[in-house]
Amino acid sequence: MRLTIDGRSVEAVPGQTVLDAARAAGIYIPALCYHPKTGKAGRCRACVVEVEGMRGLKESCALEAKDGMVVHTATPKVMETRRLVVDLLLAEGHHNCISCQANSSCELQDMVYHLGVERPSFLIESEPTPLDLSSPGIVREADKCIHCGRCVEACQNGVVNEVLAFAYRGSHAKVVCDDDVPMGESTCVQCGECVQVCPVGALVLKQPRDVRIRPHETTATKVTCPYCGVGCQIDLHTKDNRYVFAMAHEGQWEKQPNKGMLCIKGRFGLDFVDSPDRLRTPLIRRDGELQEATWDEALDLVAERLKATKEQHGADSIGFFTSAKVTNEENYALGRFARAVIGTNNIDHCARL
Q1: CA distances (Å), 129 to each of 59, 93, 132, 156, 237, in order?
Q2: What is the CATH number of the domain that holds 33?
Q3: Which residue from 4, 62, 148, 325 has the highest number of Cβ atoms inside 10 Å of its Cβ?
Q4: Confidence band of 70 (pLDDT split at 50, 70, 90)
């Protein structure tokens, strides 16, 4: 089916929202409470549009596209409404973009820029809320929260950890962990999905913040997580050939084994790549001390010891362990080596340990 958005003929599929159809066609519509993984929301009204034949403004993130629909995304009424949304969000929060970790990767900042808002029309004076630094990997800054609900939806219905929720009422409403305790004292499992979907700087990773490196300064490389056999896809962010932080790869997330999510290991356990304690060369014990050796020396020694052990004690005196951190092909190769070359079935997998 086809609909018209700002005079352009746009193709859509059944069940697709107007917002999704517009974005697929390269038409910008801001949306602060909507994320593809958290689904329809309709809270912030940043994505409102005018639709011919319909009364009032409609939230494009919740409006299903229909054949022949005519949509206008930038009429004076639409733009006025969006500016009011921005005014209210900027007025009640401490959005200091210059010092914010999310600067250049903030959806509210993008919306403000596209609307041409230089400064909010008014400010609501409030005392700053202390940062929540209790979590080992995540920083919470409540004053930057725009109450979009993305983190709550992701925690409750995405990863189903059920830690984050809205609490209190009116101007006191806020997102809390469990029964309003610091994140580090809550039942949070540190998967970081809340950081992944947060559109502003209310939830950020400690790693890049501690080293004062913002996301736009890094280079993202898509890799496969080395920790288990699921095959989660990760965007590994580096700067000057050094690891900075990791985020889930969200391109075509529906087709990925991890659906654009990560566990604590994939999110926070990759800093070992730059560890000074990593072995850089093989080591051989000579005269009671481990000394550096070449690969040829190390492999020749292993082959010699395996051969001698088999001849002296038999093939079943040798055992092998494989790993979830290598490919299926490498695990298969070790299985063939154990059974066909050494002649033993003594082979197991680290996942059983």
Answers
A1: 31, 10, 9, 25, 30
A2: 3.10.20.740
A3: 148
A4: very high
